[in-house]
Predict the 3D structure of the following.
Amino acid sequence: MKKYSKEEKSWALYDWGSSAYSIIITTAVFPIYYKASATGAGVSLSDSTAYLGYTIAIFTFILAMIGPILGTIADYEGMKKRFFVAFFLLGTISTALLAFIPNENWLLMLICYVFAALGATGANLFYDAFIVDVTTEKRMNSVSSFGYGLGYIGSTIPFILSIAIILLSQNGVLPISVTIASRIAFLITAIWWIIFSIPMFRHVKQVYYIKREPRLVHQSFKRLGKTIREIRQYRALVLFLIAYFFYIDGVGTIIALSTAYGTDLGLDSSSLLIVLFVTQVVAAPFAILYGRLANRFTGKKMLYVGICVYIVICIYAFFLETITDFWILAMLVATSQGGIQALSRSYFGKLVPKENSNEFFGFYNIFGKFAAILGPLLVAVTSQITGKSNMGVFSLVVLFVIGLIVLSRVPEPKAHESIDEVSSV
């Protein structure tokens, strides 16, 4: 495979920058910070985990509703970059604002988190759709996995800096409180995200688009309705979206609630942060490896592997008791987390018509985001009914099993045929 082009590298560098949000805000520092704030306000451990799950469900529902509509409009010339920038600004500004919310106001934290998450996930919708503009179908598996690999590597740098500041404050080396140290981590995240998004703004352009026409919004709704009717003509595409709906639900839920789950088990924040750092380091080469193995064995077979690993993760999490158990669990997650996400993106990217990539990725987004409502709700309800967080994580097994069964019925993608047929309609 020839070296990556300027456009491919610029596109992948956005993952390098934005993944700081994923590890520091979604997975590591913010959940611990929030849990401490909620506990200090008298909220029980199981309830605070449930509230976080409900919050994730709220913002994913909002984005799922507007994603296909915005995606359809974004297919017009010049609109994809505009929507990307708008969500990027919402995400980075809201992330920075987390640093200025009073520690005792855990509810306001969750509200600000909703806006930060909307910005981050909304920007990713258009970022994912840009894959058709920066590379070819033949290179999609490798480029998509390269982006995830860079994301894992790049996120470790601000993560290390954030951990160092927090640990030094805990041990009295730095004359600041842990609360201030956590707030500094939020600012580091926003700054890192902004800096490494610059190549994306400069070098990535919307190559495939539809010429603008009068009454753009009205025409977009008409096109969306047409797409809803036409998408059912493609059995492989529809089955894949259904499978994706279930298995990516489990993946996203485990990512979002992992540290909260570890806290409920009594693991201290320092141990959790170190485990998450090592997970990022291990995940980087595995994400790239998934892309290379997909070129040899097909993306579908590697998706099978990833889903099976996650089924094992859910079962093992049920028996989690010690820090050693959490280390084993984290390393299992590291082997497949990036690979399953990267190959899902490239698998879908090969099926969609390039000129309508945002519109179709809007459906990809709505299936993914609606799935992300079900998983956190399943964990939240199960945790509250049983009073045990491990039962909530174990309940996710059913989502992976359903996803695996449906994926097995997906015909091997014939990307060129699908694209030609859709484009000719």
Q: What stands out?
A: Confidence is low (pLDDT under 50) at residues 415-425. The two ends are 34 Å apart (CA to CA).
